[in-house]
Specification:
Blueprint: H1 3-13
Length: 43
């Protein structure tokens, strides 16, 4: 994707968000575990 394509999409819609009907992976209030993972060599 080129810079011009991205800028054109942003100017046309005002957002990069895509509306899709996807079921959430978690319920409100459900306990989850998040990881802060930094592999060696990752910039």
């Amino acid at each position: 994707v080129t810079r011009d394509v991205v800028l054109g999409m942003y100017k046309r819609t005002g957002t990069a968000r895509v509306d899709q009907d996807i079921a959430p992976s978690f319920r409100v209030g459900e306990t989850i575990r998040a990881r802060n993972f930094h592999p060696t060599g990752h910039t």
